[in-house]
Amino acid sequence: CETNLPFFIGTMMDVQGEQVPTQPHEPGSHGTSKPTSEKPPVLWIQDSTGQSAEAAGCTYSWTCDRGDGIWMGLEVDSMHPLQMQEYLIPYVTADETIELLFDVPPQDITVRCWSDDQWGEVDASGEIVALEEDHLMLRNGAYIYEVCASWTGENLAAAGTAHYCFYVVRDDHGHEAAEKAQTVEDPYSGYCGNTMTTIS
User: Which residue among 32, 113, 130, 180 is least enclosed by CB atoms within 10 Å?
Assistant: First the structure.
């Protein structure tokens, strides 16, 4: 069924083929050791000023233990990140990196990006973006980022792969104090082409 969010929800089924009602995901505290929810963990991005925003959830493939020994799975498909322009609010920062904060840290993360000149070009190849631990190296300018995270391993109550996206505008035009006062004697006149300007 289609929801108000920019993705489509599939049907959750148990191994006996019976439909199971889904529950909304409640974000946990950062750093929880194991995923237990019926949906993938939430991803937040944050810069050095503490400004944070929740990434949009996209396609995911998720399985979880209901607690009675029966595992159920959910397959959710979404539109391409380059089709989500009306849903992604620009996150503006001057930082060179942003921190990726998951409710539950994944075992594997890959990130790719596209320039916002490519909105709507779903066949465009994204560029792989470098990660330093949980910090993402930002491109200068306006880019759409897609994060692919996986939770795998033994003894997990939930596992799978999830995609997230967000739109970052990096403005690195810093403002620093001049070395000396930028003043001239009053008034000051200057000639440029056919125009004479006097500043008082």
Answer: 180
